[in-house]
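Final report, closing paragraph on structural work. Over the funding period we assembled a curated collection of sequence-structure pairs, and we close with a single example.
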Amino acid sequence: MEVVTRYARSGDVQIAYQVAGEGPLDVLVVPSWFSNIELDWELPPSARFLTRLASFARLIQFDRRGAGMSGGIAGATPLEEQIDDVRAVLGAAGSDQPALISIAEGCALAVLFAASHPDLVRALVLITPTPRVIRGPGYEWAQSVEERAAMVQAVVEHWGTSSPQQPWGRFAGSDEQRRRLLARHRRLSMTPDAAAASLAMVGELDVRDALSSVQCSTLVLHRANDAFVDDRHSLYAADHIPGARYVQVAVRGQTADEIEQFLTGVRRPVLSDRVLATVLFTDIVGSTDRAAELGDTGWRSLLERHDALVRGEVERHRGRLVKSLGDGMLATFDGPSRAISSAIGIRDSVCDLGLDVRAGLHTGELELLADDDIGGLAVHIAARISSLAGPGEVLVSSTVRDLIVGSDQSLADRGEHQLKGIPGTWQVFAVQT
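Its predicted structure, as stored:
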């Protein structure tokens, strides 16, 4: 969807905001301490969440002062004054009584606004809220001063980089493309100095006393197995907001499901988390030797060019690039013939970079996991078949062979193989080009 960034005037500062969707109720997303409302639409998890909200509500989002597209100085304005920024955005967007949705540290501003202006807030949704950041009496599960200082130092030192040492690098795992997207999002959200100032302010947050003053209906959500936020933060918030409902979410998309039901009273039909698809694995042949030959900088540059070519070929054949694997990639397709054509295109295009790749394909049922990842036996089978391929070779399972009968793809029998960890024997075929 096309979304336009506009500006609201809050005192002498311009606050960037957007409006998307045309639902019967308004939803205002109160961001955390850093954001960029234009880049949010380029990050797949964020874009899916925002699109889902806009499907049943009129979505309003904004950048806090000093972050993203907004003016002002990050970390220099107390939360009490930032309440005026929220009011300015609501006034500019023509919103009378929205529901507020926020996550992590942004929940503090949402709580203060709801408690201070109960007549302006329809409902409140807090996702992994942190009422207090630093450990204190009666709040022993928060970070110690020393732990907080170490985390802040690591954030600022690696701000805007794709380094695995960046604390948020774990969000992307081994997916280098996603790490680069997150790094760009950080760089265009604020500078390292601004991040340091904002983190200093966040470390002083304590809105525990305001929780009991929240009068609107409140939903507190916590992501199961969250490695970053202890669930006791969320439980504390739910226990101290009158009548708040606490829900622990476990699967992809459940956060939006719970929010929609809470705000509208309607839950969408449950969609299956399994799907039939063709899995493609590719792997750069001799990657270790090539990396040693080129050095870190040269190898990283070559990988970036490789990844760009791979992404282009996957998209050209209507596939979905699941993730980069460092020296290869994993993708899925809704048809095996397109997957084969993509594999051939990847193999041929990276030849211009002086690289050889091997590829393996299998069609089977996939499990759709969190963060757009996939799992299931079909993934392991495709990976094992890929490991059998030689330089420039594209191998497929007998299942793929059976599904492309009548196509113009030519295959050669490569015999039966035992695939490590996979029951039975598997007949493998090589694509002839």
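Residues 162 and 385 are 31 Å apart (CA to CA). The chain has a mean pLDDT of 88. We thank the funder for supporting this effort.
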